[in-house]
């Protein structure tokens, strides 16, 4: 099965124009406090400019389910990605498909996947999401056999081939790895996508 690509942390229509040129499958919009945070109005305009076959993912941290549902409807998000301490009960109140993020430091962290059986995807990330730091991929071996797995954390065009070999994720998720000076870099996006699609 071909590994799909998610480019996260898009902040402008210019970013959308870049990803529209390449074999990108998902893009992420950060609604949580972050240097990549976007307003719902900016996100809506970006999603309207997005190629129709690319899915829009909203990134949230400890946002009330009712608020997530409102933003999902307004922006027309396809998927909701949760990075906080959301409970199973919170997840059940969210209307869109969910990707639940788990920060991986040990096998015990990987075991938390069991708590989110209703999630459509499990996103495995480093301890500081968005920092560009990897975790030990051997901790995630075999996960993608049982769960739809999105691998994040420190991925670049230089290490993504190895990451795919080790973890066999359904999706690889990159943000800082395709940036220069915190701005999305078209050359890096092109290089990353071509490595994944090889």
Give the overall shape, derived from the CA principal axes.
globular
Ends: how far apart? 12 Å
- Count of the domains: 1
SS field, number of helical segments: 8
Using the coordinates shown, work out and report the CATH topology. TIM Barrel
Please provide the count of β strands. Answer: 10
Enzyme class: isomerase
Family: Belongs to the TrpF family.
Catalytic activity: N-(5-phospho-beta-D-ribosyl)anthranilate = 1-(2-carboxyphenylamino)-1-deoxy-D-ribulose 5-phosphate
Pfam family, one: PRAI
Per-chain topology:
Elements: E1 4-7, H1 13-19, E2 26-30, H2 40-49, E3 55-60, H3 65-75, E4 79-82, H4 88-93, E5 98-103, H5 107-111, E6 121-125, H6 143-146, E7 149-151, H7 160-167, E8 171-174, E9 179-180, E10 183-184, H8 186-197
Parallel strand pairs: 1-2, 1-8, 2-3, 3-4, 4-5, 5-6, 6-7, 7-8
Antiparallel strand pairs: 9-10
In words, what does this structure look like?
The chain is an alpha/beta fold and 198 residues long. It is built from eight helices and ten strands. It has a single domain (4-197), classed as TIM Barrel. Helix content is 32%, strand content 21%. It has helices spanning 13-19, 40-49, 65-75, 88-93, 107-111, 143-146, 160-167, 186-197; strands at residues 4-7, 26-30, 55-60, 79-82, 98-103, 121-125, 149-151, 171-174, 179-180, 183-184. Keywords: Amino-acid biosynthesis, Aromatic amino acid biosynthesis, Isomerase, Tryptophan biosynthesis.
């Amino acid at each position: 099965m071909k590994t799909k690509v998610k480019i996260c942390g898009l902040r402008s229509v210019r970013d959308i124009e870049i990803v529209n040129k390449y074999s990108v499958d998902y893009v992420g919009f950060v609604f949580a406090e972050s240097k990549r945070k976007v307003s719902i109005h900016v996100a809506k305009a970006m999603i309207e400019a997005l190629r129709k076959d690319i899915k829009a993912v909203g990134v949230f941290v400890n946002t009330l389910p009712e608020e997530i549902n409102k933003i999902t409807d307004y922006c027309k998000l396809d998927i909701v990605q949760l990075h906080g301490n959301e409970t199973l009960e919170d997840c059940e109140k969210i209307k869109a498909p969910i990707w639940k993020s788990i920060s991986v430091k040990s096998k015990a962290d990987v075991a938390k996947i069991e708590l989110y059986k209703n999630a459509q995807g499990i996103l495995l990330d480093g301890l500081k999401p968005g920092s560009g730091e990897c975790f030990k991929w051997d901790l995630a071996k075999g996960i993608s056999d049982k769960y739809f797995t999105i691998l994040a954390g420190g991925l670049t065009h230089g290490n993504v081939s190895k990451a795919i070999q080790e973890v066999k994720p359904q999706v690889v998720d990159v943000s800082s790895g395709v940036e220069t000076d915190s701005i999305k870099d078209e050359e890096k996006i092109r290089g990353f996508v071509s490595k994944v699609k090889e």
